[in-house]
C-alpha cells in the first residue's frame, strides 16, 4: 500500500526522479527546515521567484515557484545546490544549478 505522501507525489512529480527527504544531504535538510520556518536565510536571493526558464519543472504561472540556496561546503559563492518550492507544497532539489531536479517526497 502506498503512503499518502507517495500518492501525493504521484500527482505532482509524475515522470520525475524522486528522492525521499531523509536521503537528502544534511545541508539540504537544514535548508528545508528554514524554508518550512520562513527563514532566516543567508542570501538575499533566497525566497525569490524561480522562473523555470529551463522548463525542467511543471509549467505554472510566473511567481508560483520560489528558490532557496543549499549551502555547499567549501564553495566561495552560493554553489549549485538549490531547493525550489511550489505554492502547492511541492519541493524540488537540484545539485547542478537547475540542469536536473528531483522531486522531494516528504
UniProtKB/TrEMBL annotation:
Q: Which keywords has UniProt assigned to this entry?
A: Hydrolase, Nuclease
Q: Name one Pfam family in it.
A: Ribonuclease
Q: Which InterPro entries match?
A: N1-like, Ribonuclease/ribotoxin
What GO MF terms are annotated? hydrolase activity; RNA binding; RNA endonuclease activity
Does the record's keyword annotation contain Nuclease?
yes
**What's the protein called, per UniProt?**
Ribonuclease N
Query: What is the organism field in this record?
Result: Streptomyces dioscori
Amino acid at each position: 500500500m502506498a503512503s499518502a505522501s507517495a500518492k501525493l507525489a504521484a500527482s505532482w512529480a509524475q515522470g520525475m526522479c524522486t528522492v525521499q527527504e531523509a536521503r537528502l544531504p544534511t545541508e539540504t535538510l537544514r535548508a528545508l527546515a528554514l524554508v518550512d520556518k520562513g527563514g532566516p536565510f543567508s542570501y538575499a536571493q533566497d525566497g525569490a521567484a524561480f522562473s523555470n526558464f529551463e522548463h525542467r519543472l511543471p509549467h505554472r504561472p510566473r511567481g508560483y515557484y520560489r528558490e532557496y540556496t543549499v549551502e555547499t561546503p567549501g564553495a566561495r559563492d552560493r554553489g549549485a545546490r538549490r531547493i525550489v518550492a511550489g505554492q502547492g507544497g511541492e519541493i524540488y532539489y537540484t545539485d547542478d544549478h537547475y540542469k536536473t531536479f528531483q522531486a522531494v517526497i516528504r
